[in-house]
């Protein structure tokens, strides 16, 4: 009964928060503060009612722990203040996974059981992040369909990677057949893959052809099935990631600094160091890998921890403050800064949290039970 109450409150308030986030891009403090207050007070009442103070203890631990973790993400610029309050409220109401929907549909089994530890907020965060991938992919598909240049660029990249993924899948299937014929453990495929990765392209292409030909000769059905079992999941994952990262380009636009408004999210980092104003290159994964390959560790450090006074940061999820905008406008007037700034359109995050919450209520602590 208590679990159903906590679920109902969480679901209703999350649904309302999702609606306001989609419509107005804001979640009212009344919703988040109500979550925190109701979660703590109801767990306290339940503790007195059952003479078991584990309820309020778990709720308190989850609330404080989530608040501290969320505040760290806010300090790092990953989250906005509303995200901190929302997750803290959900932690107060759901210190553990009550699995209401799981019990409702009768999904039994040890894998779906709820563990008696206040770790539900952590898994909610993890699932929310993953829920953003298909959401970002849908935004990308819509944007790509409307942008001819971007669609050509994306499809060219997909075509290129399609060939690479197919070659890799064929190689894995071929090496698996070779390892099986030699009666070795399947794990021997991994060092073989690494060794082939150091070969020249022409030589590695010959190796791929030879080992897959051997696999087809020994058992062509198993060889084709094995290649497809590797290829299809990799292709799906690549497409999902490609569309998700393409959404960053779709959601970016250049805005005149003189037209900036408070809360707009900067898509680039601008610093002032020794009297000079600099626009830093984007700290993307590709850029960081490139610097590591060139053994330029100092460049990576500057990307992650820029020196000087930060005027605008691409990692500040809370957006630009009035003070930052005034400073940027002043630099534009002084001709020290070009009158434009890459701005990111914010994507509603609460719908992903709602999806993650419902999914976790269905599967219980599946991930925890599977790995531990």
TrEMBL record:
<keyword id="KW-0378">Hydrolase</keyword>
<dbReference type="InterPro" id="IPR009639">
    <property type="entry name" value="Pept_A24A_C_arc"/>
</dbReference>
<keyword id="KW-0472">Membrane</keyword>
<keyword id="KW-0812">Transmembrane</keyword>
<feature type="transmembrane region" description="Helical">
    <location>
        <begin position="226"/>
        <end position="245"/>
    </location>
</feature>
<dbReference type="InterPro" id="IPR000045">
    <property type="entry name" value="Prepilin_IV_endopep_pep"/>
</dbReference>
<feature type="transmembrane region" description="Helical">
    <location>
        <begin position="349"/>
        <end position="371"/>
    </location>
</feature>
<keyword id="KW-1003">Cell membrane</keyword>
<dbReference type="Pfam" id="PF06819">
    <property type="entry name" value="Arc_PepC"/>
</dbReference>
<feature type="transmembrane region" description="Helical">
    <location>
        <begin position="56"/>
        <end position="76"/>
    </location>
</feature>
<feature type="transmembrane region" description="Helical">
    <location>
        <begin position="33"/>
        <end position="49"/>
    </location>
</feature>
<protein>
    <submittedName>
        <fullName>Prepilin peptidase</fullName>
        <ecNumber>3.4.23.43</ecNumber>
    </submittedName>
</protein>
<keyword id="KW-1133">Transmembrane helix</keyword>
<dbReference type="GO" id="GO:0004190">
    <property type="term" value="F:aspartic-type endopeptidase activity"/>
</dbReference>
<feature type="transmembrane region" description="Helical">
    <location>
        <begin position="122"/>
        <end position="142"/>
    </location>
</feature>
<feature type="domain" description="Peptidase A24A-predicted C-terminal archaea">
    <location>
        <begin position="238"/>
        <end position="343"/>
    </location>
</feature>
<feature type="transmembrane region" description="Helical">
    <location>
        <begin position="162"/>
        <end position="182"/>
    </location>
</feature>
<feature type="domain" description="Prepilin type IV endopeptidase peptidase">
    <location>
        <begin position="10"/>
        <end position="121"/>
    </location>
</feature>
<dbReference type="Pfam" id="PF01478">
    <property type="entry name" value="Peptidase_A24"/>
</dbReference>
<dbReference type="GO" id="GO:0005886">
    <property type="term" value="C:plasma membrane"/>
</dbReference>
<dbReference type="InterPro" id="IPR052218">
    <property type="entry name" value="Preflagellin_Peptidase"/>
</dbReference>
């Amino acid at each position: 009964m208590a679990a159903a109450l906590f679920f109902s409150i969480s679901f209703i308030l999350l649904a309302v928060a999702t609606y306001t986030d989609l419509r107005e891009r804001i979640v009212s403090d009344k919703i988040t503060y109500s979550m925190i207050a109701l979660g703590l007070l109801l767990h306290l009442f339940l503790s007195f009612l059952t003479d078991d103070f584990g309820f309020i203890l778990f709720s308190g631990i989850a609330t404080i722990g989530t608040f501290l973790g969320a505040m760290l993400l806010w300090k790092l610029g990953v989250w906005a203040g509303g995200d901190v309050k929302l997750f803290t409220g959900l932690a107060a109401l759901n210190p553990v996974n009550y699995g209401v929907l799981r019990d409702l549909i009768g999904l039994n089994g040890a894998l779906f059981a709820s563990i008696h530890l206040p770790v539900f907020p952590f898994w909610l965060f993890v699932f929310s992040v993953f829920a953003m991938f298909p959401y970002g992919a849908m935004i990308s598909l819509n944007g790509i369909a409307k942008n001819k240049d971007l669609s050509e660029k994306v499809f060219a990249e997909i075509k290129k990677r399609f060939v690479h993924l197919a070659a890799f899948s064929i190689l894995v299937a071929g090496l698996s057949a070779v390892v099986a014929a030699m009666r070795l453990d399947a794990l021997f495929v991994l060092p073989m893959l690494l060794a082939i990765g150091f070969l020249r392209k022409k030589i590695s292409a010959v190796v791929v052809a030879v080992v897959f030909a051997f696999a087809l000769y020994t058992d062509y059905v198993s060889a084709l099935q094995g290649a497809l079992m590797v290829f299809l999941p990799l292709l799906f994952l690549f497409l999902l990631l490609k569309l998700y990262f393409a959404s960053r380009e779709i959601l970016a636009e250049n805005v005149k600094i003189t037209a900036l408004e408070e809360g707009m999210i900067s898509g680039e980092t601008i610093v002032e160091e020794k009297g000079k104003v600099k626009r830093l290159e984007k700290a993307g994964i590709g850029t960081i890998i490139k610097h590591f390959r060139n053994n330029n560790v100092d460049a990576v450090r500057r990307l992650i921890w820029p020196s000087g006074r930060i005027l605008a940061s691409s990692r500040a999820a809370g957006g630009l403050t009035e003070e930052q905008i005034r400073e940027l406008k002043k630099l534009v007037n002084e001709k020290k800064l070009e009158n434009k700034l890459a701005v990111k359109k914010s994507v509603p995050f609460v719908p992903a949290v709602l999806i993650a919450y419902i999914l976790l209520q269905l599967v219980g602590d599946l991930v925890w039970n599977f790995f531990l």
